[in-house]
Amino acid sequence: MKTKLARKYRQEFDHLNLEHKRWTHEMHFIIALDYLLEFSKTKTIEILSKKIPLYNEKNNVKNTESQGYHHTLTIFYI
Q1: Quick check: 35 and 67 in contact, CB under 8 A?
Q2: Cα–Cα distances in angstroms (integers) from residue 3 to residues 17, 21, 26, 54, in the given order
């Protein structure tokens, strides 16, 4: 995927405007990689640990132990 397209998706995600049907595991990686091109691993984890739960809530996805944001998986994949 081209960097410009990854940046576009990240900006949509940042503004909580990314179409929910696009929020796949692949998109998680694309957005995380775009953050890593700009920020450290620690900062990327910090950003995503705040933004993913907000994005989920906006899309009526509950953040529980069995669904939504999983901090351990985010750290593992970053």
Answers
A1: no
A2: 19, 21, 15, 24
Tokens of residue 27, six digits: 């998109």
Can you give 1-30 as a three-state secondary structure string?
Answer: CCHHHHHHHHHHHHCCCCCHHHCCHHHHHH
- The 10s digit of each residue's pLDDT in 1-34 is 678 999 999 999 999 999 999 999 899 999 999 9
The CA distance from 31 to 29, in Å, is: 5
Reduced to 3 DSSP states, what percent helix, strand and coil does the chain have, rounded to the nearest 5?
Answer: 70, 0, 30
d(CA 53, CA 69): 6
The Cα 47–Cα 41 span in angstroms is 10
